[in-house]
Amino acid sequence: MDWLPILAGIAAVLLGIVIAVRYALPSFLVQPFVTAAADEKTVLSRLHLSPGMHVLDAGCGSGRLAIPIAKRVWPSGLVIALDNDKNILAELAASLKRRGVGNVKTYTSDIVTAPIKASYFDRVVMTALLGCLKSRDGAIRRALRVLKPGGILSVTEVAIGGKYASAAEVQRLALDAGFRKSFEYKGWLSYTANFEKPGVPHPKATPKPMPAPATDQYVKPQMGHVVTVSQLEAKPPQPPQEPEWDSWLEDPEALEHGDDAPRLEKPDGKK
Description:
33% of the residues lie in helices and 21% in strands. The termini are far apart. Residues 24-30, 208-235 and 255-271 have low confidence and may be disordered. It has 271 residues and is α/β, with parallel strands linked by helices. The chain has one domain (27-255): Rossmann fold (3-Layer(aba) Sandwich), CATH 3.40.50. The radius of gyration is 20 Å and the shape is globular. The longest helix is centred in the N-terminal third of the chain and has 22 residues, at 3-24. A seven-stranded mixed sheet has the order 3-2-1-4-5-7-6, with helices on both faces. A two-stranded antiparallel sheet has the order 8-9.
């Protein structure tokens, strides 16, 4: 039997599947592949989160990661979730209210144009985002600026749907911007690359890393016990003090004033 034509046929079929998955599928068919290739538990395990951290979820979408990240950094940590899609942010805001998650705030904007303070965040998360951006270099350089020394930019990309930034491109842009590479994981259709902002973090500015709790638990360090999800659903946790939510902005008045300033909108419609 001549195996060459058979092998060639198999290779052609596989290539066709890859091309169809990566370039031709509509968005509603692409999303399940993205979710499977960059699942919540896997991405979270690579962020090395701890209570008290400030996290920027750039391109947060429906909050698939923003909500579990908020649980990891609770009670004193906060998550700022940015996206340009007002409708999906409205869905996220409703989900936050329904789940009683009080340490996430959403804003209609993006990491390139939002007036974010320098050296404010411990983590900047970009999941299936860079491939969709025209200014990938601008997004990475802005991430470097807004991270604290020792902070981490975590980029996860999924090679599905045609909008994809390769690991080689992201690494080149990150190193050129001034990051240093700290971690990379490559799968068949996805990868995660972490880049660290050089510098020594201030001990009071950045929480000491600690093992992340199980996904169905919150750790309350000040009380020394574990609260399960069922308990939290009965009585949702809230930060002990209401954070200054606009403290991450260079100009808090940009929410209300200034035609030249990026227009950020809160879920309640206030500007």
